[in-house]
Amino acid sequence: MLILGKEVAAKTIEDIAKETVEFEKAYSRKPTLAVIIVGEDPASQTYVRNKINGCKQVGFNSLSFEYADGTPQEQIVDKIKELAEDKNVDGILVQLPLPKGYDTEKILANIPDSKDVDGFNASNIGCLCLNRPRTVSCTPLGVMHMLKSTGVELRGKNAVVIGRSNTVGKPMAMLLLNADCTVTVCHSKTANMSQFTKNADILVVAIGKPKFVTADMVKDGAIVIDVGINRVDGKLVGDVDFENVEKKASYISPVPGGVGPMTISMLLFNTLMSAKARENEQ
Q: In sequence order, what are the beta bridge partners of 230?
């Protein structure tokens, strides 16, 4: 059975739009997301457009700041600090990856915890590890919503995450662990990976290699979530050999139409939660 992230995301966006109306009535302003993009990478520009369109869809204000590759890092940091002090800005997002020559960690460190709607900074990741999550990375959070949509009880399940990135793999493992799964993280240096994946009730794949997971690596009846987005011969494909793995999985997410739409809906969710939290603190 397919887990269509685009359908789960559509329902989430509908709910956010309704809550935004109530927020504006209560506080006489709209939630506001500020996006910073450096350089002219086509994929990054597409992602930023999609995020801004998402803001329009739910009734948020959006601010976009574009900088040419080569802009001094201090100039970008100064803009982040300015946005951090702006009481009407609820979320700050720096589109990644940044061009070569920029210190991503130092730039992101200037985003306050309360406005880190990507959930990337050390404090928010630390709170997730302590099972006291504040803002959670958008893609892993979206995957959890997709798993919830199946109605399958996660507690006690064997979960395998392929990929250990700071943006997906590691927070994904923490979320599954916090949901009482038994979690294994595999990566490029894992020997005999299939010995782990064959025992997975839940398999989340985020390794960035097209059709890496084949049917012989998957347990019958497993839930398979494909986070990968790869372009092969002009077509988008995931990290899972969908056509063959679908025959064995009880649930599987397609590419496109799976995890991708969830990421933006969770960004909007995080921004709304940030706006509410900031108003409640004032």
A: 237
